[in-house]
Structure formats: C-alpha cells, structure tokens
Design a protein that fits this description.
The protein is an alpha+beta fold and about 300 residues long. Among the domains are: about 80 residues, no CATH class; about 110 residues, Chitinase A, domain 3 (Roll), CATH 3.10.50.40.
C-alpha cells in the first residue's frame, strides 16, 4: 500500500531505526488525536471506519501520489484509518516519539507554507537581495584571481648590498631547481627552499596566500605571479619589498563577466539561508515569545561540546 503523506506515517521510519545506545527514558505525553481532520469546508466525508470519517481529500491526495483509480485510493484511505485505530488501541498515541513526530510535521508544514513557498526565487528576497547586489556589483566583473605560495628569502630594508646579493643567489637557486617542473604544490616549494637554505643563515618566510586579483597584490609580487604560465609552476626569483621571492601559482579563478541576474542566482541559496533566521526572529516578535535558556543544564548534558 502506498504510504499517505501524513504525520502519523513517520512512525514507520521511527520504528525501523536500530542500533546505537538505547534511548533515554522520556516522560509520558498527552495522547495525540488520530481523528483525521477535515481539509476544508468543501471536503466531503466518503466513508466511516468505526464511526470515524474518511475524507474525500484523502482520496484526491492518493490519486495525486499515484493511485490508479478512485476505488484504489479509497481502499488505501480506509486501510490507513484502520491502521491508525489499531495503533491507538495499542497505546501508541501516547508514545513520546509520536508526539515528537507530530511536532516535526507541524514545523515542516509551517516552514513550507510560510517560508519555502514564499522565497522560491531571488526576486522574492526583495530589498535584502537588492542591497546585496548593489554592495557586490564588482562580482559582475570579476578579474582573474590567483592563489599562490611563496618562499621568501627576507632582506631587511637597511641591509647592505652584499646581503641582498646573497638572498638573490639563494632565491635564484630555488627557482632554478623548480623551473622545469609542473604540478607543484606548496609543500614542494617549502622542501626545496628549506633544503637549499640549510646552513646559509638566510631567514626564510614560506606561506600560502589567498586568491587575489592582480590589483590586490604588491606590484612586483603580482608581476612575478602573473608571469607564471600555468598552475603548479613557479616564477623566477622576484624582488619584492620584503626580499627575494619564488612564487608558486597554486590555483584561483579565471576572469568572468556575469549579469546581475546570474549573480543573484548564485547567491540566492546563501541569502535564503540567512533570511530563514530573520524569519524565525520575526515570528518570535510577532508572537511575543519569550525564550529562556538554562546554560548550566545545557552544559550538563552528555555528548557534544559547548
């Protein structure tokens, strides 16, 4: 029989779960009413099972879910009512898991009709989306972004020429050893630089650097990085304001021109998630709900971390 899309049927999934530690004891709860509610003023009663109604809306729903005929849909609705009454007779209406499943179904339905159906496309976010697009207009004209790693032989600003020359010689040796290699990673650059610098007394600075546009980098560093022909290769020894650098092009993003609509579609899932919390906070204000949290009790619970 096809499962009806009603809260009680989550019991099937709950009952099938197994393994793990036994659940902690839960307090008894008030019995959940299993009498099928009328869908609306136009809903009609099509049958009774021990005096309880089977509604026409159930048949319509089952046909929408794949029942071939009205008769088949009616059989399924009657069978479901029988199962619901059997569960009630076994005392399952007071099972805490039933109450929790009902609460979950109520929450899911509220989210569906008041949030998911309201915010289905970027334009539905209104002023929030407009402001984000205005503040991030640069994303429509994204320049090439390059991520990098560097091995820098540091040179102090007031260092004598011979110190600068020694730093340059070491950087050139590092670059020469890696110049013909492809598919390099930051660790390869680090290992080579540390090995060649050993015993020289040179001060090395070796780091990974975030993806950046050319305009966001020190000019000489940018020249060296953007002269590298492909990801996984290194630059020649490059003099920057901090010393002599060997720069590895490690990744990034190509330049891209996008329309306002394309950027809105890309950011929509993220902004929609952020809007969900705003929606929840609005409900708290509208319903004048007061939230109290006992942090001491939360901290005392087993499992997890604060």
């Amino acid at each position: 029989m096809r499962a009806l899309a009603l809260p009680w049927m989550s019991l099937v999934a709950l009952g099938a779960c197994g393994g793990g530690a036994p659940p902690a004891p839960q307090p008894a709860v008030a019995a959940i009413s299993i009498v099928a509610p009328r869908a609306g003023e136009t809903d009609v009663e099509v049958a009774k099972v021990n005096g309880r109604p089977v509604w026409g809306s159930c048949i319509v729903g089952q046909i929408a879910r794949g029942a071939k005929t009205r008769a088949a849909a009616l059989d399924e609705c009657v069978a479901f009512e029988l199962l619901a009454q059997a569960a009630e007779q076994r005392g399952l209406a007071t099972d805490p898991s039933v109450g929790e499943a009902t609460r979950a179904a109520l929450v899911n339905r509220l989210v569906q009709i008041d949030f998911e159906e309201k915010y289905q496309k970027p334009a539905d976010l209104g002023d929030r989306m407009t402001k984000w697009l205005d503040d991030n207009a640069w994303r429509m004209h994204r320049p090439e972004l390059r991520a990098s790693s560097y091995a820098r032989v540091e040179v102090a600003k007031d260092a004598p020429p011979e110190t600068d020359a020694r730093a340059r010689k070491l950087a050139e040796a590092i670059a020469a050893e890696l110049a013909g290699q492809t598919g390099l990673f930051g660790v390869n650059l680090r290992e080579t630089a540390e090995r060649l610098a050993k015993g020289t007394g040179a001060k090395l600075d070796i780091k990974d650097y975030k993806q950046s546009p050319r305009s966001g980098l020190e000019s000489n560093y940018a020249d060296g990085l953007f002269a590298v022909p492909e990801v996984g290769r290194v630059s020649a020894a490059t003099r920057t304001k901090w010393g002599w650098d060997v720069i590895l092009w490690s990744g990034g993003l190509p330049a891209k021109e996008s329309s306002r609509e394309e950027i809105a579609a890309e950011v929509f899932p993220e902004l929609r998630r952020a809007t969900f919390q705003v929606w929840v906070n609005q409900l708290i204000k509208q319903l004048q709900i007061h939230v109290e949290i006992d942090q001491a009790q939360v901290a005392s619970l087993a499992g997890g971390s604060s």
